[in-house]
Amino acid sequence: MAPFPAPAETPMRIVLASGSPRRRDILNSIGWSFDAIVPGVDESAIVGEYPRDMVLRLARAKALSVSLVTDGAITIGADTVVDVDGDALGKPSDRRDQLRMLGLLSGRTHLVHTGVAVARSGEILAGETETTKVRFGRLTEEEISSFADTHEGDDKAGGYAIQGRGALLVEGIEGCYYNVVGLPIFLLNRMLNRLRPRSA
Predict the structure, then answer these.
(1) Per the domain annotation, does 152 fall within a domain?
(2) Structural domains of the chain, count
(3) Do the bridges between strand 74-84 and strand 14-17 make them parallel or antiparallel, or are there none, so unpaired?
(4) Best label site of 41, 78, 106, 130, fewest CB within 10 Å?
């Protein structure tokens, strides 16, 4: 199945509603042409909201808000969270918070959810959630502190990134690797292909 949209085949414009360099890197790596706009969306959690529901709600909000100013472009929104026993771990507020998160993840399996939504001209066209299981090795306090010193996880959900030195924390994964990075590209491609106009 060909990726959608293929820039050489269609003039349709893609806009990524995100300021994440990881998401931009993923789209660049597969050769898609796109613009990126940072959405102005309140990302606060709602009390009692499940992490899977939260990421889809925020992905939809991001895609929708940016689609209103992109003149008919296909607009992609995404949001990622780390889920530990139903509790969402977002980006750490400071070093102490990051150390707490990494200690909580040490020696156990957690879930990474990414909500992905596609919108155009203020209308949501599609929205789905991808989940990957990630298993951390048992970490010493020194290992946790050393990773925090790299600052690689300062702005990442759960206080770590699987790419780079964060790979040293991860014993194994079950599911989509790119979902843990922040954009499940296989899922996104399938979503966009389902929206592709069919020839008569």
Answers:
(1) yes
(2) 1
(3) parallel
(4) 106
Q: Which of 29, 47, 10, 58 is nearest to 157 (CA)?
A: 58
Can you give the pLDDT of all 200 residues of the chain as single tens digits? 445 555 434 456 899 999 999 999 999 999 999 999 999 888 887 888 999 999 999 999 999 999 999 989 999 999 999 999 998 988 899 999 999 999 999 999 999 999 999 999 999 999 999 999 999 999 999 999 999 999 988 888 899 989 888 999 999 999 999 999 999 999 999 999 988 766 43
CATH number for the domain harbouring residue 55:
3.90.950.10
Residues 6+ apart with CB under 8 A from 132: 111, 112, 173, 174, 175, 176, 177, 179, 180, 184
Per DSSP bridges, beta strands 123-136 and 87-89 are: unpaired
Residue type, 97: D
